[in-house]
Amino acid sequence: MAGEEINAHYPVEIHEYLSAFENSIGAVDEMLKTMMSVSRNELLQKLDPLEQAKVDLVSAYTLNSMFWVYLATQGVNPKEHPVKQELERIRVCMNRVKEITDKKKAGKLDRGAASRFVKNALWEPKPKNASKVANKGKSKS
């Protein structure tokens, strides 16, 4: 707060929480200024479609979260407001994007190499004729 002075309008016990809240608001403000300094089209041109979806989802989630906080400060229960369903819908979409990202990172199976590994790892019995031929060759020597 301004000079870390304690205001007489609120209890001393919440001073730490209010200071942390003020710092968080300052950080959000800085991020918004940074994000707003670049045009949206300019930003999205540099990103692939998956990254564009992530930016859009994070933006929507952030905006709805801020509205959630606004409702709470106005005495409205945000859990009973449609913003809760919107946040849930965005969260589901974020999970879908995360699954797609995880699938891209997952290793690919080389079927040819896998079949060679399995084929070489399996035990193959010797043919009966081959053992007789080998025994005949040893007894003649």
UniProtKB/TrEMBL annotation:
One of its GO terms (cellular component) is cytoplasm. It holds the Pfam family Sas10_Utp3. GO terms for biological process: maturation of 5.8S rRNA; regulation of gene expression. It is found in: Cytoplasm; Nucleus, Nucleolus. Keywords: Cytoplasm, DNA-binding, Nucleus, RNA-binding, rRNA processing. GO terms for molecular function: DNA binding; RNA binding. InterPro entries: Exosome-assoc_fac/DNA_repair, Sas10/Utp3/C1D. The keyword Nucleus applies. Plays a role in the recruitment of the exosome to pre-rRNA to mediate the 3'-5' end processing of the 5.8S rRNA. Belongs to the C1D family. Monomer and homodimer. PANTHER family: NUCLEAR NUCLEIC ACID-BINDING PROTEIN C1D, SUN-COR STEROID HORMONE RECEPTOR CO-REPRESSOR. This is Nuclear nucleic acid-binding protein C1D. It comes from Gorilla gorilla gorilla (Western lowland gorilla). The lineage of its organism: Eukaryota, Metazoa, Chordata, Craniata, Vertebrata.
